[in-house]
């Protein structure tokens, strides 16, 4: 004899099915999630001073007095050990001056807060070394004769590499053959740098453009691969120039000073 399947009345079946789903939503709402909230951070003029000391100090070669500004940009994010729950994240998601980002995109090294800080400072030191090598190579100057010291407190990570490099080039190209890079403007930007002058992507460019415009910049150098991100919430009055190399950046800035055509995102 065949057994009979018992069918639950429809309202009861729906209630039975919905219960575990609602339970999952409740757990998700209460569980800490691997995201951080980032906001535009401070900017710093690499042609200027930080805490009373020049950001760029050159020995072994003459330097020129520079005009304008070259501003490196940063973001500030909630700490790597902080936790956020879904209702909190939703509150930040739709704010244009904030970004909800995966924790690993901001803190890719992982580890404790102290380990991450040490990693970021190490990356900054490597970035500064690469910036000096890229600038001296671009200018065809002997690193045995010229020493470059970079000083910028309370900033970690590699994303200031491009701006450090441009600052060194601007100070060292003292014979005037190439012309000043800023043309008296406030130029901002972001991007990693390698010793051969390759510019790399960094993340958080939408927030960095906001920081740049807030602090008076009118031009922003962005790694070409991140043009679309930079354009998404571009502040009014800020011009984007895409770059893939140090040569790109220098050529574009000099063309801008001559009122020539300059690449755009």
UniProtKB/TrEMBL annotation:
Limits of the Lon proteolytic domain: 156-240
Lineage, opening ranks: Bacteria, Bacillati, Actinomycetota, Actinomycetes, Kitasatosporales
SUPFAM superfamilies registered for this protein in UniProt: Ribosomal protein S5 domain 2-like
Gene3D superfamilies, sorted: 3.30.230.10
Name this protein carries in UniProt: Lon proteolytic domain-containing protein
Domain of life: Bacteria
Pfam family, one: Lon_C
InterPro entries referenced in this protein's UniProt entry, alphabetically: Lon_proteolytic (IPR008269), Lon_Prtase (IPR027065), Ribosomal_Su5_D2-typ_SF (IPR020568), Ribsml_uS5_D2-typ_fold_subgr (IPR014721)
């Amino acid at each position: 004899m065949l057994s009979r399947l018992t069918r639950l009345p429809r309202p009861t079946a729906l209630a039975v099915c919905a219960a575990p789903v609602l339970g999952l939503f409740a757990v998700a709402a209460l569980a800490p999630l691997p995201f951080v909230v980032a906001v535009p951070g401070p900017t710093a003029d690499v042609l200027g001073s930080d805490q009373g000391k020049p950001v760029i100090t050159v020995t072994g070669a003459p330097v020129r007095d520079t005009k304008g500004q070259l501003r490196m940009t940063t973001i500030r994010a909630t700490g790597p050990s902080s936790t956020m729950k879904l209702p909190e994240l939703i509150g930040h998601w739709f704010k244009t001056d904030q970004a909800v980002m995966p924790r690993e995109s901001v803190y890719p090294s992982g580890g404790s807060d102290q380990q991450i800080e040490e990693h970021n400072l190490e990356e900054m030191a490597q970035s500064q070394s690469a910036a000096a090598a890229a600038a001296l190579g671009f200018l065809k100057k002997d690193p045995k004769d010229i020493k470059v010291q970079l000083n910028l407190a309370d900033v970690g990570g590699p994303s200031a590499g491009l701006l450090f490099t441009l600052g060194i080039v601007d100070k060292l190209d003292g014979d005037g053959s190439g012309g000043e890079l800023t043309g008296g403007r406030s130029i901002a930007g972001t991007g990693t740098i390698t010793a051969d002058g390759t510019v790399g992507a960094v993340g958080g460019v939408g927030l960095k453009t906001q920081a740049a415009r807030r602090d008076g910049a009118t031009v922003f150098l962005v790694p070409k691969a991140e043009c679309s991100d930079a354009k998404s919430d571009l502040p009014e009055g800020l011009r984007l120039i895409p770059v893939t190399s140090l040569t790109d950046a220098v050529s574009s800035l000099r063309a801008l000073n001559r009122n020539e055509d300059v690449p755009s995102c």
